[in-house]
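Recap slide: HAD-IA family hydrolase, sequence and predicted structure.
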Amino acid sequence: MIRCAIFDCDGTLVDSGGTIHRALGLAFAEHGLELPPRQQAQRVIGLSLVEAMAELAPTRDADLHQRMADTYKDAFVTLRGQRQVEEPLFDGILPLLDALEERGWLLAVATGKSDRGLRHCLTSHGLHARFLSLQTADRHPSKPHPSMALQALAECGATAERSVVIGDTGWDMGMAKSAGCHAIGALWGYHDADELRAAGADTLARAPADVLDQAEQLVSAEA
């Protein structure tokens, strides 16, 4: 039977927190606002942009949140044009993808990035073609809504019971549970173990090397 591994991107595949914080700083400055400290700002990584702005500037109105999201997109494009975007793969991700594919798993991504941002990121690492399904905030509600995971399952021809979501935030765990998937919390990312457990993580992986065995144990229990 088909098995599918759905990955978050920021904080799970790549360590993009520094660049995200710089782009947030430019967006907040453009609108005369003070950006929260990096540790606080990282809590919203994984949400779609408008929802992230609402979390970081809760006293502002929805119109400003939308304009801030648009400014963030422009800032990120500017940083990319200046070659200041840093999105390195986390150590161990490539061997994990290799191992999953060797065991017959199909790969997918569900991310709060835009289509353009995800394409740039994956292409820069030579990974774009390895993922059968790519789901972004351009076409779906923000996590933890299950839409991205459900569409990835449909495109891969997989069932939720035979699939896992690997992500570093509570938003990812919530999406997984809402879609009926197993949820593996990535402790190398931006949310801590307590947050991941509270959001529904079935297991916690301290490093990418832990994920394959955990994924196979979770889906084998459903066989």
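The first strand starts at residue 4 and ends at 7.
The longest helix spans residues 62-81.
(End of recap.)
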